[in-house]
Design goal:
about 190 residues; mainly alpha; 7 helices; about 80% helix
Length: about 190
């Protein structure tokens, strides 16, 4: 066997071994891609589950906090009367009563701001946030609520957002209608 034949034979063996190595390499890469995809899918599922848990936890904490606000604003007959007088723009209110009424509105609007931020970041259900905005509109479309907002609302972080809501004022019950429904004393008879 001469050198040229030997070189061709060795070249053929090299090509054969190279082809086998390419097949093994492609198989190895296919397995690695499969494992990477499975790992990515698991990470995506885990991240989505964590996001859902965070959203539920945030919503739960928001509801507890909202209940605290409602308790602070409407937690006694005196506070209910104060809120009612303030929203009806009672001219008999003292400066101290008006300041307490202002603090009640600020509590409600601070909580609205939190809900707005959570909603913008996907951490709050849009329907739940819309219900709060309807409540805000009921309060701020009352005579006293609107008067307070026009004088003091500019200090609130969500001033522009609330002004846009008020400008597009949806068909929400007035605070007086809502208050009458909430505090009616007669028994409701179910229709059969």
């Amino acid at each position: 066997m001469d050198h040229l034949t030997l070189a061709q034979l060795l070249g053929n063996y090299g090509e054969f071994i190279g082809a086998i190595a390419v097949v093994f390499t492609l198989g190895y890469l296919a397995v690695q891609v499969k494992h990477s995809r499975q790992s990515l899918d698991a990470s995506t599922r885990s991240a989505e589950e964590n996001r859902l848990v965070m959203k539920i936890s945030g919503e739960s904490e928001w509801m507890r906090s909202w209940n605290d606000v409602l308790s602070e604003v409407y937690g006694s007959a005196e506070k209910i009367r104060l809120m009612s007088r303030g929203l009806s723009n009672d001219p008999q209110m003292t400066d101290e009563e008006y300041m307490a009424f202002s603090m009640q509105l600020i509590l409600i609007l601070n909580h609205h701001h939190l809900s707005l931020q959570m909603s913008k970041n996907g951490m709050r259900d849009q329907g739940a946030h819309q219900a709060l905005e309807n409540f805000i509109l009921m309060v701020l479309t009352s005579e006293g609520g609107r008067s307070w907002w026009d004088r003091s609302g500019f200090v609130m972080d969500q001033y522009d957002h609330v002004n846009a809501l008020l400008a597009n004022e949806p068909n929400v019950p007035t605070y007086t209608e809502w208050e009458q429904l909430l505090f009616q004393r007669e028994e409701m008879t179910p229709q059969l």
